[in-house]
Amino acid sequence: MPLLSLPSGFPTEIWTEVKVKKELLPEESWFIVGDSKVRSSWETWAPLPPLGELWLDVSEQKKSVAEVVRCLEVWSQIQLPKQAVIVCVGGGVLSDLVGLATSLYLRGIHWHIWPTTLVAQVDASIGGKTSVNLGDAKNQMGTYYPPKRVVVCNEFLKTLTPLDLQNGQWEILKMALLEGDRGWLASLNDRLSQPTVISSLSADVERCIFAKTSIVHKDLRDEGNRRLLNLGHTVAHSIEAASRFQIPHGQAVGFGLLVACSMSSLLAISEFPHSLTEKWIRELRAYSYSWPLWDESAPFFAWDKKKENTTGGQTFTEPLPRTGERAILVSCGMESFHRAYVEVYSRLQT
Ligand SMILES: NC(=O)c1ccc[n+]([C@@H]2O[C@H](COP(=O)([O-])OP(=O)(O)OC[C@H]3O[C@@H](n4cnc5c(N)ncnc54)[C@H](O)[C@@H]3O)[C@@H](O)[C@H]2O)c1
Question: Nearest C-alpha to atom 10 of ligand 1 is from which residue?
Answer without folding.
Answer: 92
